């Protein structure tokens, strides 16, 4: 109920305009967002790199309404890749296809993705395609395959969401490539005919998918993280849930998959304790670092994930 309400609000334009006009809302958003400028993202990445943690930078923004906006977002992502290269940070980039025009014109969106991949390739960097709501899954996988298989870009990966019934089947097909996968639970509001409504079923499906990913990574020769920290291994476990993380560690040990061939990913500002603990134990950790002015929808999803975050959000009203 709480989650549904906040995810609905995350899509409402009236709420976006109202909440983004509140100064305290931006103060609260800073918990999950590195800042509003590219330099803020780069600085956050440098700070994490010093702790032996890699990053993926995300220019906030989604559901672009015009092709001009999609083109502008593409240019900004190209600038992000230039800045990563200039600063020599151990970071790749994450992109949302609706920001690049997926819902306006699929071919133009694919062309935008290709421009990004081409520059990333020049710098030996990697681009992860985030997964959005269920209505986008087929097209997102379609653009990914077009780039990865038909155009032969090896520096692209995709995200799958364990809450969807279809995910284990999608994963099995993508592992035939084999694709580099970030597995998350899923952050959108989906109906019971496409997604598991109960957390325990999402968790069980997550473990099922982890098992399949780790087995496939082993079969593919267990490729490891690149020495510059930019190209991730095949399986990336994106969760702050210790039970999911521990399951992945245990299963990797059981089948003999080396630690180097697996990566743990978490979101900026969430469970920093586990982020540091895993990095100290020698596991590869990558943090998703969002920045930019379009922080509204991303932050509402973070609020939706945890009722306690609402009190954190409201407490910022009283801070100077
Ligand atoms: C690197 C990364 C990339 C992601 N990319 C995508 C994507 O492309 N598409 C997509 O749909 N989703 C994405 N997500 C979000 C994901 O789907 C989940 O919504 C989110 O990670 C919460 O699920 P969880 O696995 O942490 O498990 P949960 O069971 O939700 O949480 C486990 C524990 O983590 C902590 N926690 C989780 N969320 C919060 C929060 N918001 N605030 C404070 N503490 C919290 C709490 O301690 C909680 O008990 C991504 C997540 C990560 C880590």
Explain what the structure shows.
An 8-stranded parallel beta barrel has the order 1-2-3-4-5-6-7-8, surrounded by 8 helices. The radius of gyration is 18 Å and the shape is globular. Strand 7, helix 11 (272-280) and strand 8 form a beta-alpha-beta unit. The chain is built from 13 helices and 8 strands. The chain folds into 2 domains: 1-32 and 295-315, no CATH class; 50-292, TIM Barrel (Alpha-Beta Barrel). The chain starts with a helix and ends in a 5-residue tail after the last helix. With 320 residues, it is an alpha/beta fold. The longest helix has 21 residues, at 67-87. The model has no long low-confidence stretch (mean pLDDT 94). Helix 3 (23-29) crosses helix 13, helix 6 (106-122) packs across helix 7 (137-150) and helix 12 (296-305) crosses helix 13 (308-315). It has helices at 2-11, 13-20, 23-29, 38-50, 67-87, 106-122, 137-150, 167-174, 199-219, 242-255, 272-280, 296-305, 308-315; strands spanning 54-59, 91-95, 127-129, 156-161, 180-184, 235-238, 263-267, 284-291. Residues 130-131, 159, 161, 182, 184-188, 238-241, 265-267, 270-271, 288, 302, 305-306, 309 line the site of flavin-adenine dinucleotide.
Q: Provide the CATH topology of the largest domain.
A: TIM Barrel
Q: State the helical fraction.
A: 40-55%
Give the overall form: globular
Q: Give the termini distance in whole angstroms.
A: 32 Å
Summed over residues and divided by their number, the pLDDT gives a mean of: 94
Q: What would you say the CATH architecture of the largest domain is?
A: Alpha-Beta Barrel
Coarse structural class: alpha/beta
How many domains? Answer: 2
C-alpha-based Rg, rounded: 18 Å
* Small-molecule binders: flavin-adenine dinucleotide
Give the strand line-up of the largest sheet: 1-2-3-4-5-6-7-8
- DSSP summary: helix tally: 13
């Amino acid at each position: 109920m709480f989650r549904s309400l906040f995810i609905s609000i995350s899509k409402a334009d009236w709420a976006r305009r109202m909440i983004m006009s509140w100064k305290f809302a931006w103060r609260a958003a800073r918990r999950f967002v590195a800042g509003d400028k590219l330099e803020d993202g780069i600085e956050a990445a440098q700070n994490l790199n010093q702790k032996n943690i890699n990053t993926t930078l995300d220019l906030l923004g989604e559901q672009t309404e015009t092709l001009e906006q999609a083109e502008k977002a593409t240019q900004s992502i190209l600038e992000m890749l230039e800045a990563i290269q200039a600063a020599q940070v151990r970071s790749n980039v994450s992109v949302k296809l609706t920001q690049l025009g997926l819902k306006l014109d699929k071919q133009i969106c694919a062309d935008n993705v290709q421009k990004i991949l081409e520059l990333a390739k020049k710098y030996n960097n990697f681009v992860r395609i985030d997964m959005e709501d269920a209505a986008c899954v087929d097209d997102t996988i379609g653009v990914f395959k077009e780039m990865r298989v038909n155009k032969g870009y090896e520096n692209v990966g995709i995200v799958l969401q364990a809450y969807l019934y279809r995910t284990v089947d999608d994963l099995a097909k993508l592992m035939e490539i084999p694709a580099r996968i970030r597995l998350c639970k899923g952050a959108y509001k989906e109906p019971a005919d496409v997604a598991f409504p109960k957390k325990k079923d999402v968790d069980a499906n997550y473990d099922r998918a982890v098992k399949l990913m780790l087995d496939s990574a082993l079969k593919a020769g267990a490729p490891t993280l690149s020495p510059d920290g930019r190209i991730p291994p095949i399986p990336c476990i994106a969760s702050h849930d210790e039970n999911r993380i521990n399951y992945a560690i245990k299963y990797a040990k059981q089948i003999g998959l080396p630690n180097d061939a697996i990566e743990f990913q978490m979101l900026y500002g969430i469970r920093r304790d586990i982020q540091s603990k895993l990095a100290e134990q020698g596991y590869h950790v990558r943090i998703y670092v969002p920045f930019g002015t379009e922080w509204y929808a991303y932050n509402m999803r973070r609020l939706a994930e945890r009722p306690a975050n609402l009190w954190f959000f409201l407490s910022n009203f009283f801070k100077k």
